[in-house]
Sequence to fold (296 residues):
Amino acid sequence: MENKSNKRTDPQAADHLARNKDKKEEGHNEVSKFEKENTVQVEIEGEDTISTMELMRNIGLVCGGLLACRLITQRKYEVTVSNLTAKKRLLDGFKIGETRVLAKELIKDTLVVSFLGLPAYITDVEILQKLHGWGVSAVSEVKRRVWPGTKIADGTRFVKVKFTDTVQSLPYSVRFNIAMGPEYFRVIHDKQVRVCRICIQPGHILKDCPDFLCHSCGQQGHYARECSGKRNEDKCAICSFTMANCICEATEAEREDSVFVNDELSSEGGSGGENEMEEGTSLEKKCAGHLRLSWT
Fold:
């Protein structure tokens, strides 16, 4: 007499079953590793009761590579799979009958970041460039928030962002160049803390950042407009830092050439005509490769 099973199996699971059988027939073997990165939290939503064995059987069919299943509550589990592909399938979710099986990251390194009140003409590319500059990346498209009951954008954009081990929070505001000039706009996300705008790390403000240097003297801890102690010291004519903090590595002869050009331009005051400006420009081009001169 033929035995008929009344076990519930999601149609999606049946599709993956054939694929998993093919892999076994091809001798497809993977090294099983119990990795935290491949562990997710699974929740069951619905009125039907799903046993642990039934859940594990369907996870194995839909995703493959099930290594561990730890019971947390009656409808919540911690599941470890063998690879990222299986994890992605599990995060996509599936159904057992009318009951939904939902998974979410155990290590939450992805958050929704909102840019408040941006002009409508600011492009998505400009927003993505800001994120890239902070060392994080978008994992979704940039979306526009709309006024309730309409399709009219209200200026706020939001995007799902993947954070890293070194960048766990973003600055409270960001500057965009708009039609009226540069302007700062609010940036918000969950678990946000104050960070330095240069290194994107907490614990200090911009002027105390090890990467922040005064443009006048090359020292840390103050802006050029606040610099007073180094104003009377000799400065390199190329990088404008004091000689003790010179970063351009120019030779003495090259510095003298640079000083000569500056002196000539200052003494003539631009009144010598077009030929003299061309001479200055020519000398600048000779030195530009190593001296990095720029005229203001």
